[in-house]
Amino acid sequence: MQSQSSKKDGFCVGRRAFLLGAGATVTALMLPLGGRMCRVSAATKAYPRKVVGKLSALKVGEPQPFLYPIDDPVYCNSLLVKLGVPAGGGVGPQGDVVGFNTLCPHWGGLLAASYKQEHQVLGPCPTHLSTFDLTRHGMVVAGHSTESLPQVLLEAQGDEIVAVGVLGLIFGHAENPGGA
User: Fold this and answer.
1) What tens digit of pLDDT does each residue of 114-129 get?
2) Which CATH class is domain 50-167?
3) What is the tens place of the pLDDT at every residue in 132-151?
4) Which of 27, 68, 91, 145 has its CA 20 to 30 A from that of 80?
């Protein structure tokens, strides 16, 4: 409730009026000038293109290790997996071949040996039991991690599987290594 002195001495605004005014101000500032939209460009990182496997060599449920985006055996360990079911970001004829960095984004626990084919997950992490769904871009399904597992973006070129980028931040870095 407003006091008599605040009505008489100054300007008093309620929460609803403040939010409506703030919304109107933001909307007015974001409207394009003269009917033209403003062009916004995003900063992207260029990653090296690297052949990391062959479609013909992959067997369902048998992960193959590779290093990407740089040849760093500490932070850039990754797995190439033929899941046998279509997956987000999957390549190949069935869209079932995916690649992921194997460091848990929570505390950097090594997940390389924890692939569970029956559930299409990587984990649980030995540190805090985070588990990641490989069919859904490495989404967290259990544990303490708040971020998805970094997915290595792949392209299929004939029989070759080529790594072209990383979706997510690799543990231990302020920005992913290997880009220009």
Assistant:
1) 899 999 999 999 999 9
2) mainly beta
3) 999 999 999 999 999 999 99
4) 145
